[in-house]
Amino acid sequence: MIISMVNQKGGVGKTTTAINLAASLKRKNYRLMFIDADPQGSATQWHAVENNNAFEILHHPEPLQKTEIEEISANCDYVVIDGPPAIGHITKSILAVTDLAIIPLSPSSLDIWSCWGTLEIIDEVRAFNPELKIKLLINRKIPGTRVGRDAREALEIFQVDILDTELCQRVAYIDSLTSGVSVMQYAPSSKAADEIERLCEEILPQIAMEEAQTEVQNQYEVSNGEVPHEEVSHEEPIEIPLWQNAYRG
Ligand SMILES: Nc1ncnc2c1ncn2[C@@H]1O[C@H](COP(=O)(O)OP(=O)(O)O)[C@@H](O)[C@H]1O
Ligand SMILES: [Mg+2]
Predict the structure, then answer these.
(1) Would you tell me how many other CB atoms lie within 10 Å of the CB of residue 40?
(2) Which of 2, 27, 30, 227 has the highest CB neighbour count under 10 A?
(3) Which of 28, 4, 26, 27 is nearest to 17 (CA)?
(4) Which is more confidently placed, 150 or 30?
(5) Cβ < 6 Å from ligand 1: which residues?
(6) Mean pLDDT of 158-167
(7) Is the pLDDT of residue 236 over 90?
């Protein structure tokens, strides 16, 4: 299962969410690989602070090949990908292999407007990855204000699922990253740690449900004498999407 944080805008919380979500999955004993696809390598720098061995991290600031990601995910329950702050070949290649794309954004009009661009690219990539699921995540909500609620209403225009869990603006997110750990390690009983655990628990059943649906569909197709999707997909000529060729010049 591949979960990616994408948003063409920087500073919306892709890296913060990716690191903490990965840490939460790891604490639940899932086998996990973290791919830092951002050329700036923020997650990789975070990982180096404490020589953190909470989970393995791979800095891969170039388009992902389908075969590469298949190899990595064969040995993992989850692959968490931290996307770059731009929409280009890297983000498109990430979306082409992702099961669940989370789009973090702050409850500000600037972030909400910039979401259109990210959603347009997602629509484009759907041709290669029709099963791609998308969820918006409200991050940096200021507790005790109506801003988060207003943003939720404004985001309905996109007709995309919005995660119930919201992450607030909290010092623990900043300080934990500086210390090279997750918010659960840094402040286990903090509100930030609670938000991340709730986020993880909200996402996991949805993933499990989708996996079960795919399983049922495959069984149905097998019982109808059809070849299951997975076997078909190996034959499909989408191994290297066009934008990757373009990127590699
Ligand atoms: N919920 C939050 N509360 C406080 N600070 C946050 C929160 N989310 C992100 N930040 C801070 O905002 C900055 C940008 O976040 P980051 O995760 O690097 O965004 P992106 O990866 O989208 O560029 C970082 O300094 C991070 O510590
Ligand atoms: Mg980042």
Answers:
(1) 13
(2) 2
(3) 4
(4) 30
(5) 10-16, 42, 85, 139-140, 167, 169-170, 173-174, 177
(6) 94
(7) no
Per-residue pLDDT tens digits for 186-224: 999 999 999 999 999 999 976 666 666 666 666 665 566
* Nearest atom (ligand 1) to Cα of 139: 1
Q: What is the DSSP letter of 158?
A: G
> How would DSSP label each residue in 36-69?
E--TT-HHHHHHHHTT--SSEEEE--SPPPHHHH
Rounded Cα gap, residues 186 and 180, in angstroms: 9
- Kindly tell me the burial class for residue 212, based on how many C-beta atoms sit within 10 Å of its own C-beta (0-12, 13-18, 19 or more): exposed
Placement of tokens 């939720």 in the chain: 152
| Backbone φ and ψ of 153, nearest 5° | -65, -45
- The pLDDT value recorded for residue 212 is 66
Strand 32-36 with 56-59, pairing: parallel
Non-local (6+) Cβ contacts of 139 within 8 A are 12, 13, 16, 17, 104, 105, 106, 166, 167
Residue 51 zone, left/alpha/beta (φ > 0; ψ -120 to 50; rest): left
- What pLDDT does residue 14 have? 98
Rounded Cα–Cα distance for residues 176 and 140 (Å): 15
Is 2-247 a domain of CATH 3.40.50.300? yes
Band (pLDDT 50/70/90 cuts) for residue 113 is: confident
Which residue's CA lies nearest to atom 9 of ligand 1?
Answer: 13
Q: Which two tokens stand for residue 168?
A: 């607030």
